[in-house]
Request: fold
Amino acid sequence: MIPEAVPDERLRPAMEALAQQDPDMAAAYRRCGLPPERSSEPGFAGLIRMIAGQQVSVQSARAIVGRLEERVAPLTAEGFLQLDEDDLKAIGFSRSKMRYGGLLAEEIVNGRLDIDGLAEMEDAAAIAALTSVKGIGPWTAEIYLLFALGRPDVWPVDDLALCIAVQHLKSLDARPGRKAMLTLGEPWRPFRSTAARFLWHLYRHPGVALGRGVKRTA
Reply:
């Protein structure tokens, strides 16, 4: 039996502020309530789980991460580098994910990426540090800041499910692009992380007719 999702009460003050200033957000909030609790572990473990879960279904991502955690415990950069190509293939890593996971682990082990120091950086600097590692794009960096570092004002405009949810929320004729997403998200400062969390919740909420077929989002 799948346990019932627990609403994330930490988001309530920000959600109430968003609902007060945005009637569309208020109406959706009344229908869907708070998003469920969710967070990611900071450090290499959290990042490699995000890389492992990209472009696959939620179920496949969980299976891959589960096999990885069985092979490498604790899940550290040093431990990951002990796995060879056959190990990673058996776990479920594609060739590109093997490469990018290895590059990330090497950057951390060699001290070129101060993974713990990201917590002390401003958002833009932390994203720049992460995206300097080949294979980590802006989306992964933003999701890391949002879920692992708990930053309050991250707005991942390239996330497909988020764009679809905004289109639905605002009754737009077309899915908004990057420029439109930035504009639409501007009034939700300084709570754009909560707005994103809620919109993903809206996207998945039973009875809300949104476009489907997105393989993997936050």
Remarks:
- The radius of gyration is 18 Å.
- The longest helix spans residues 95-109.
